[in-house]
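To the wet lab folks,

You asked to see what we're planning to order before we commit. Fair enough. Below is the target structure as tokens, and below that is the sequence we designed to fit it. If anything looks off to you, flag it before the synthesis order goes out.
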């Protein structure tokens, strides 16, 4: 039951991240990308510290360096994605970022030296093909923006993998607090170094930052970090890849984008990928039970 609840939390995270595309676009009309990142992480750090700061008292000392590592990886991933977006199209940026769904099982294999699960590999490939159907438009040539987007995918893959690894022994909420505090500190230092301290803030910018901080950052990453205690890193990556699907749905609903047959095919492939990842543990078990019953 905990596993299904965890998968549900990851699905909620994907939905919220899908909505974040629209809100981030609004925020970038009034603020720079680095200001948006610093603002969302700073506000999220304050919210989590106020609500759950007491969890740090009981957390082990190792949670500090692990949280700092996660926060650094997270900020680097967002920075690569943001800078890459300046040199490539949003659709290619989204697709290349989602390549993390393939990178995660490779990292797991390299670290644990375990056989790569066939079900999860099939699900990962189906998910990435589905994301390609949803996102890719026009030219398939590579430029510096595409390379940065691929680097971002690797960074996000390490974030998912390391989170899945660390929450097995550490308090997930305490880990998330340190992660956000680290990311906000880096973000503030970057804004100061670039001289991008905003003199005034439009209400639309404030609303966008508040939404991104509360939903796309605090709730989404809290859900992701807690859920990773009860599921595999590869499965988490596959479920989180539905961010593209929900981004498409919300874009059609609110931005009036045209829904094409290729987009529908991509959505179906992503949903099938999740289904394969979900039934993977159950199918061999059921087959074994049926076989044992026949032998009896």
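Sequence we intend to order:
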């Amino acid at each position: 039951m905990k596993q299904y609840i965890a998968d549900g939390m990851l699905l909620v995270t994907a939905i919220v991240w899908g909505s974040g595309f629209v809100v981030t676009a609004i925020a970038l009309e009034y603020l720079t990308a680095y200001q948006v990142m610093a603002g969302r992480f700073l506000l999220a750090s304050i919210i989590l510290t106020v609500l759950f700061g007491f969890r740090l008292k009981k957390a082990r000392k190792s949670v500090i360096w692990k949280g700092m590592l996660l926060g650094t990886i997270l900020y680097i991933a967002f920075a690569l994605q943001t800078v890459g977006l300046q040199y490539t199209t949003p659709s290619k940026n989204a697709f290349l970022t989602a390549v993390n769904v393939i990178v995660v099982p490779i990292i797991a294999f390299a670290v644990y030296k375990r056989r790569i699960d066939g079900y999860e590999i099939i699900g990962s490939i189906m998910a990435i093909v589905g994301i390609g159907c949803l996102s890719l438009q026009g030219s398939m040539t590579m430029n510096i923006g595409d390379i940065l987007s691929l680097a971002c995918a690797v960074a996000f893959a390490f974030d998912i993998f390391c989170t899945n690894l660390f929450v097995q022994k550490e308090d997930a909420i305490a880990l998330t607090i340190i992660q956000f505090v680290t990311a906000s500190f880096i973000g503030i230092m970057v804004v100061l170094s670039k001289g991008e301290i905003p003199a005034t803030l439009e209400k639309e910018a404030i609303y966008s930052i508040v939404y991104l901080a509360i939903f796309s950052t605090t709730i989404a990453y809290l859900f992701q970090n807690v859920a990773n205690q009860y599921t595999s890193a590869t499965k988490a990556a596959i479920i989180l890849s539905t961010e593209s699907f929900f981004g498409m749905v919300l874009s059609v609903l609110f931005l009036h984008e045209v829904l094409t047959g290729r987009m529908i095919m991509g959505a179906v492939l992503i949903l099938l990928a999740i289904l394969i990842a979900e039934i993977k543990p159950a199918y061999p078990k059921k087959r074994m039970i049926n076989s044992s019953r026949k032998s009896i």
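Structural context that might help your review: The chain has 14 helices and no strands. Confidence is low (pLDDT under 50) at residues 285-296.

Thanks,
Computational group
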